[in-house]
TrEMBL record:
<protein>
    <recommendedName>
        <fullName>Fe2OG dioxygenase domain-containing protein</fullName>
    </recommendedName>
</protein>
<dbReference type="GO" id="GO:0051213">
    <property type="term" value="F:dioxygenase activity"/>
</dbReference>
<comment type="similarity">
    <text>Belongs to the iron/ascorbate-dependent oxidoreductase family.</text>
</comment>
<dbReference type="GO" id="GO:0002229">
    <property type="term" value="P:defense response to oomycetes"/>
</dbReference>
<dbReference type="Pfam" id="PF14226">
    <property type="entry name" value="DIOX_N"/>
</dbReference>
<dbReference type="InterPro" id="IPR026992">
    <property type="entry name" value="DIOX_N"/>
</dbReference>
<keyword id="KW-0408">Iron</keyword>
<feature type="domain" description="Fe2OG dioxygenase">
    <location>
        <begin position="188"/>
        <end position="288"/>
    </location>
</feature>
<dbReference type="InterPro" id="IPR044861">
    <property type="entry name" value="IPNS-like_FE2OG_OXY"/>
</dbReference>
<keyword id="KW-0479">Metal-binding</keyword>
<dbReference type="InterPro" id="IPR027443">
    <property type="entry name" value="IPNS-like_sf"/>
</dbReference>
<dbReference type="Pfam" id="PF03171">
    <property type="entry name" value="2OG-FeII_Oxy"/>
</dbReference>
<dbReference type="GO" id="GO:0046872">
    <property type="term" value="F:metal ion binding"/>
</dbReference>
<dbReference type="InterPro" id="IPR050295">
    <property type="entry name" value="Plant_2OG-oxidoreductases"/>
</dbReference>
<dbReference type="InterPro" id="IPR005123">
    <property type="entry name" value="Oxoglu/Fe-dep_dioxygenase_dom"/>
</dbReference>
<keyword id="KW-0223">Dioxygenase</keyword>
<keyword id="KW-0560">Oxidoreductase</keyword>
Length: 341
């Protein structure tokens, strides 16, 4: 069923039928808990070994953590949020110029997740942009609001640096050379999803985004500071990750799970909706270069007693990405298709 943009400003009083999930597949919001011990990592710390240890614990246990003092200025973050809100506030006519449901397009405004594949739609519109190398894509980006290109370029450059610093810490935390991940991932691509979840008349019946893992290497998420919505699955239970204004939420994607030979987890997460307020989130995805070969780091499996091969077979990121988008979002963990048999 072809879904349409929902960032129209129109307040629905009931949920349109194509968004209603079967009873077995609903958010069950009353069963979600607060996450008390969600890791908070201060990137300005000069105690490197403690930072590395904190990263290790967070990635092995949660696959998710928050970073503060990350180096992206408050001004840049605030301007990014403003420009994103202004974008979704534009007229339908203006927004439809960018609409596409073709996942191979490098700049597109779309809705739900993958409307060509899914049976039930999700209560989300999203602007998807490729951000690196910027000069290759910036001409495709929206020209309105007028400051869009300048603000998004600055934001994505600064976020990229945060990602690289975290990748170094991740490498070290696995006992690898600090440049290991950067070297394996090659010239990393960078995509952005600006997610907009309008108020939803019946949040118990649908998702903003259903449970999924991220197909890339590392995700850096800027959450709306006032509206909750992100939830992560830990030991079979859903927990809310409530926003902290000065923090990014960072999570391990499928590729870092593969490269760490499963030591670090690419954890299921989802976005839920609410009746009151629109919610904005901005996800920046660092992606391996298409031809980078994802090969679990040797020291992580060779050291295991009796292990003669890694959990995952070698694959290129291009192969993985194609597989990911050929599926529906909430199927099995995509990495299960790449196990070493
Ligand atoms: O909106 C959120 O908090 C989650 C976004 C997300 O998971 C995604 O864009 O892949």
């Amino acid at each position: 069923m072809a879904a349409k943009l929902i960032s129209t400003g129109f307040r629905h009083t009931t949920l349109p039928e194509n968004y209603v999930r079967p009873i077995s597949d609903r958010p069950r919001l009353s069963e979600v808990s607060e996450l008390e011990d969600f890791p908070l990592i201060d990137l300005s710390s000069t105690d490197r070994s403690r930072l590395v240890q904190q990263i290790h614990q967070a990635c092995a246990r949660f696959g998710f953590f928050q970073v503060i003092n990350h180096g992206v200025s408050k001004e840049t973050v605030d301007e990014m949020v403003s420009v994103a809100n202004e974008f979704f506030d534009m007229s339908m006519e203006e927004k439809m110029k960018l609409y596409s449901d073709d996942p191979t397009k490098t700049t597109r405004l779309s809705t739900s997740f993958n409307v060509k594949k899914e049976e039930v739609n999700n209560w989300r519109d999203y602007l998807r942009l490729h951000c690196h190398p910027i000069h290759k894509y910036v001409h495709e980006w929206p020209s309105n609001p007028p400051s869009f290109k300048e603000v998004v370029s600055r934001y994505s450059r600064e976020v990229r640096e945060v990602g690289f610093r975290v990748e170094e810490l991740i490498s070290e935390s696995l006992g690898l050379d600090k440049d290991h991940m950067k070297n394996v991932l090659g010239e990393q691509g960078q995509h952005m999803a600006v997610n907009y979840y309008p108020p939803c008349p019946e949040p118990e019946l649908t998702f903003g985004l259903p449970a999924h893992t991220d197909p890339n290497a590392l995700t850096i998420l800027l959450q709306d500071t006032t509206v909750c919505g992100l939830q992560i699955l830990i030991d079979g239970h859903w927990f809310a990750v409530n926003p902290r204004p000065d923090a990014f939420v960072i999570n391990i994607g499928d590729q870092l799970q593969a490269l760490s030979n499963g030591v670090y987890k690419s954890v299921w997460h989802r976005a839920i909706t609410n009746t009151e307020k629109p919610r904005l989130s901005i996800a920046s995805f660092l992606c391996p270069s298409d031809c980078a070969v994802m090969s679990p780091a040797k020291p992580l499996w060779e050291a295991e007693e009796g292990e003669t091969k890694p959990i995952y077979r070698d694959f290129t990121y291009a192969e993985y990405y194609k597989k990911f988008w050929s599926r529906n979002l909430d199927q099995e963990h995509c990495l299960e298709n790449f196990l070493n048999h």
